[in-house]
Predict the structure.
Amino acid sequence: MGKLNGKIAVITGGTSGIGLATAKAFKSEGATVITNARHAERRDEALQQHGDLFDHVGIADVGKVDELDRFFKEVGDKYGKINTLFVNAGFGQPAPIEAATEAHFDSQFDVNVKGLYFSIQKALPYFEGGGSIILNTSIANQLGMAGFSVYAATKAAVRSFARTLSAELVGRGIRVNAVSPGPIETPFFNKTGMTPEQIEQAAGQILQNVPIGRFGKPEEVASYVVFLASDDSSFMLGTEVEIDGGMATL
Ligand SMILES: NC(=O)c1ccc[n+]([C@@H]2O[C@H](COP(=O)([O-])OP(=O)(O)OC[C@H]3O[C@@H](n4cnc5c(N)ncnc54)[C@H](OP(=O)(O)O)[C@@H]3O)[C@@H](O)[C@H]2O)c1
């Protein structure tokens, strides 16, 4: 018997990296798995590559609240309820403060903070009788990583939401927790705008600060998301679980 049998699970950004690994883990635990893609081409690509994994792939750019509204209404109409939401879609781009533009700032806050917040708001009408919401923050929320000030600030906001929204939603039987990954092997770094040489250099620097001596695998985050989604974590709320090879603590 799967830990998520009969559960309707929505993952934002489930087509890649940590979201995709979580979709596979949710599916193997018996959940119905739903995700979004930011446009039709990306959705078709996801269905082509992982058609047997997703029960539904909707279209929503999470930075656009009207698209989130439409996506969650579509899910609500089709499935009637949501039991688990993994709010995962996000990205990061480096820039020193002297070079950062308004667009650099707004785009990261739009997706990582506004997108996350309104994903939760738009999903809430379908959480009847409780459930579990898991947020994807980052250990960047507590480190002074030069060049990542905006990204780190977005993730600090997510850390805050795990606590405040827990307090707001506990009365409805909804538990809100966060996973806080360290460096994980996903396409994340290819989307930072850095060149392959810059990525290699940055990865080498990051590795020096990971006590366990390697990047994590997306599956190593996904197993904690399953734990937080399931009744195994029934006494946990408002927490942030670090999955980082010791980077933030040792
Ligand atoms: N990898 C790491 O080292 C690491 C560490 C700490 C935290 N995280 C966090 O983990 C989460 C997942 O990242 P990942 O590493 O798995 O990277 P990823 O493979 O790039 O996955 C990110 C997912 O979010 C989606 N997404 C981004 N912007 C979106 C938008 N505006 N609308 C809809 N979907 C959007 C992406 O869609 P596309 O495929 O279309 O881009 C993709 O499916 C992020 O929140 C990231 O900040 C990652």
In short: The longest strand covers residues 174-181. The pocket of NAP is lined by residues 13, 15-19, 36, 38, 42, 61-63, 88-92, 111, 136, 138, 181, 183-184, 186-188, 191 (CB under 6 Å). The chain has seven helices and seven strands. The radius of gyration is 17 Å.
